[in-house]
Design brief:
The complex is a heterotrimer of chains A (103), B (483) and C (135).
Chain A lengths: L2 H22 L3 H25 L7 H31 L4 H4 L5
Helix pairs in contact in A: 1-2, 2-3
Chain B lengths: L2 H5 L1 H19 L10 H17 L6 E3 L4 E3 L1 H24 L7 H20 L3 H19 L7 H31 L4 H10 L4 H17 L8 H8 L2 H7 L2 H17 L4 H24 L4 H18 L5 H30 L14 H4 L1 H15 L5 H15 L3 H26 L7 H4 L7 H19 L2 H14 L1
Chain C lengths: L10 H24 L6 H4 L18 H18 L1 H6 L4 H5 L4 H22 L13
The chains are: A mainly alpha (103), B mainly alpha (483), C mainly alpha (135).
């Protein structure tokens, strides 16, 4: 197997793990971790495609990954802020218990 | 001035206005009122609107090494988004609680979000697309939880946030695959490479993943579950904004990705969008029939409207894009308008959330009652309102593209939708029950700012319904710019 | 062509992992089997400078810890953007065609960061003595 397909396989597995975590977990923080794994799988893809792509001298993939890490950090900060704010109200971060609106 | 800077002038103005709001907000003493910040936010938005119109004088082209574009397409959406934001700001000025110390944050976030949405419509580099989408999303996540002292506010925000970031993960993975398949993230280059590519497997997979991310933002059918909860939990002035402006930006992105980046795969994505459009209309309308809460009902109605809009994507390039752009404008005008009216009637704290609570509004406040009925008429799609021409162009584009069945499904759905719109309109027009608490309820006050916002939305809805030609021509220009 | 197969590059890493784990486990197991264990009450008590443990280790932290942690993540990542800028700073005049373009870009960027810091400080997020329920 070529190095590129190794990386793609790892990224795909990472994405699948993140997806499974985000879908099955009930704790808001763990769902957030799953989502971060999905984003990082995409970053790994970007880096691998950049490194083994036709133009490794143009830093497209690398820069994309740096920006997406920054965006993910901003997202995580907002997410944790929301988790704190919901914990203050309901004293839980369990998504099933949080969910009160129905219809 | 440097043309590169001119091409991002509206976004720059919005960001600078947002930063000014932040700085002034932080400099004021903690207990001071923040309402006056509207005098920075609203003129800033107007200036951005003006700057977008100035861009008409520029030749269409890209700036910053092919990262952002100015064309009639981007200007159309810039003007639309700035208009929506302006109305939402005026609405918020009069309806947010006056003693709140978080109004500064509200205005700053709205402005930052608006800059992200504007940037999204002009982005021709997938990196900028991603960042712009996140700027607008993160701002709206926080805005959705603005009423943080009620249980519903944070609940809405966290649902919106988790599902939104989930969709972002798919979008980013799709972009990474596009980069891998074509070796570029510049949309024109991707289009060029994709057209000459032998093997489309990777690109098709990437398109599917990107569609998940984008269709989530427009709340189309399989990805719509967040909509009712977020609309119910977020304060109504915020819902007026986030049911329209981010959707307009996301539809602009969808148009760009489908018609500009991957037009050759039309035979593949057209059937897919056909199914999604039909599903959105049907699911949205059937669920809306059962709703007792007005905001939830309007949330499902907005899912259905996303479906009507997606029907235009079945059309051929020129007609389809123009119809979609026109529909977005019409939908934005009436939806912002109806949420403004709902805000005034049920109040910021929503002491009157149910359809039954709206009984006799026409007698309590004839103006608000008749405005509500007017916007409902437009949402049904009765002639002389923007909603009629929106649906008309969308369905005729679908028929032109050979999707006659989809147009028929759309028409049937409009009939179903009329049922719940009429139910609300009839409730509004019913006489209030004798001696009930209804009579004791205060008549909602319409301030100057909210009055201007209502006037603007009513004017826009009527204008789009009586003389749609200028907007349609602008939409057609936008469509030409995209091809 | 590289004479060493690609995956062999990771061999030193593997050796290091094995050695690290081996060393740790052998020390713990060795002391378990070789050493003598006679625990008395005095022996287990905190000695001189030690303090008696009070309460649960999983106590609740002030929300300010989370605030500071979140802000740290943000500013931490913001610094990352300076690295690629610094790497190509000397080439920027050629690429952009303007002598100070790169310089002013970074000034604008730092301006954004400074606005963020100003906002945080003025809102009292870093003020640990301030006890506001409404953050």
């Amino acid at each position: 197997m070529s190095p590129l397909s190794c990386y793609l396989l790892v990224a795909a597995l990472l994405f699948a793990v993140g997806l499974a975590g985000a879908l099955t977990r009930r704790n808001a923080i763990l769902v957030l971790i799953g989502i971060e794994l999905m984003l990082n799988a995409a970053n790994l893809n970007l880096i691998a495609f950049w490194r083994y792509g036709p133009h490794p001298e143009a830093l497209t993939g690398l820069m994309f990954a740096v920006f997406s890490i920054a965006v993910a950090a901003a997202e995580a900060a907002v997410g944790l802020g929301l988790v704190i704010s919901i914990y203050r109200h309901l004293r839980t971060v369990d998504l099933d218990e949080i969910s009160r609106m129905k219809g | 001035m440097n043309t590169d800077l001119l091409r991002i002038l509206p976004e720059t103005i919005l960001v600078v206005a947002g930063i000014l709001v932040m700085l002034i907000d932080a400099s004021l003493p903690p207990r001071a009122q923040r309402r006056g910040l509207i005098w920075v936010a609203a003129p800033g938005t107007m200036l951005a609107l003006w700057a977008s119109l100035i861009q008409l004088r520029l030749d269409p082209g890209t700036a910053f090494f092919g990262a952002v574009e100015t064309s009639p397409f981007t200007i159309f959406f810039h003007v639309l988004i700035c208009g929506i934001v302006l109305v939402a700001l005026l609405l918020a000025y009069d309806t947010l609680p006056r003693d709140s110390h978080h109004q500064g944050e509200f205005y700053a976030l709205v402005l930052f979000g608006a800059s992200g949405m504007c940037l999204l419509t002009g982005a021709v580099e997938l990196l900028v697309v991603f960042i712009a989408l996140e700027i607008s999303s993160i701002s709206t996540y926080i805005l959705a939880g603005y009423r943080k002292h009620t249980g519903k506010g944070p609940e809405a925000a966290i649902k919106y946030f988790l599902l939104g970031s989930f969709a972002t993960g798919f979008l980013l993975y799709g972009i990474a695959l596009i980069f891998g398949a074509t070796g570029s993230t510049q949309i024109y280059e991707v289009a060029h490479k994709a057209a000459s590519a032998q093997n489309h497997t990777f690109i098709v997979l990437a398109l599917m993943l990107m569609l998940v991310g984008i269709l989530f933002k427009v709340s189309a059918a399989p990805f719509h579950v967040w909509t009712p909860d977020v609309y119910e939990g977020a304060p109504s002035p915020v819902v007026a904004l986030l049911s329209t402006a981010p959707k307009a930006a996301a539809f602009a992105l969808l148009l760009r990705v489908l018609y500009q980046m991957l037009p050759d795969l039309r035979s593949l994505w057209m059937p897919l969008l056909w199914v999604i459009a039909a599903a959105s209309m049907t699911i949205g309308n059937l669920a809306a029939l059962r709703q007792q809460n007005v905001k939830r009902m309007l949330a499902y109605s907005s899912i259905a409207h996303a479906g009507y809009l997606l029907a235009a994507f079945a059309g051929l390039a020129d007609k389809g894009i123009a119809a979609a752009a026109f529909y977005i404008a019409a939908y934005a005008a009436m939806n912002v308008g109806i949420f403004a009216v709902v805000t005034l009637i049920s109040g910021y704290d929503e002491h009157l959330p149910l359809v039954a609570d709206f009984r006799g509004v026409l007698y309590r406040s004839p103006l608000l009652g008749s405005l509500l009925i007017f916007f409902l008429i437009s949402l049904i799609g009765i002639p002389f309102t923007g909603g009629f021409f929106g649906k008309f162009y969308s369905f005729s584009a679908a028929v032109g593209g050979g999707a006659v069945v989809l147009a028929i499904i759309g028409l049937l759905n409009s009939g179903v939708a009329a049922a719940y719109y009429v139910r609300l309109a009839v409730t509004v027009a019913q006489k209030p029950e004798n001696g009930m608490s209804q009579a004791a309820l205060p008549v909602p006050q319409i301030g100057v700012a909210v009055g201007a916002a209502l006037l603007f939305t009513v004017g826009a809805t009527l204008w789009l319904g009586i003389a749609p030609e200028p907007i349609l021509r602008a939409a057609e220009n936008a469509a030409h710019a995209l091809q | 062509m590289n004479p060493i197969p690609y995956h062999w590059q990771y061999l030193p890493l593997l050796i290091q992992i094995v050695v690290a784990f081996g060393l740790g486990t052998s020390m713990i197991l060795g002391s378990r089997f070789v050493g003598r264990h006679r625990n008395s009450k005095t022996k287990l008590a905190a000695y001189e400078c030690g303090v008696e443990a009070v309460g649960d280790a999983r106590g609740r932290f002030s929300v300010r810890y989370y605030m500071v942690a979140m802000l740290f993540i943000l500013f931490d990542v913001e610094a990352v953007f300076m690295m690629p800028w610094a790497v190509i700073y000397r080439k920027l005049p050629e690429i952009t065609g303007s002598r100070f373009f790169g310089f002013w870009e970074m000034i604008v960027y730092l301006g954004f960061v400074a606005v963020g810091i100003f906002y945080i400080v003025r809102k009292g997020i870093l003020d640990w003595s301030l006890d506001k329920a409404d953050l």
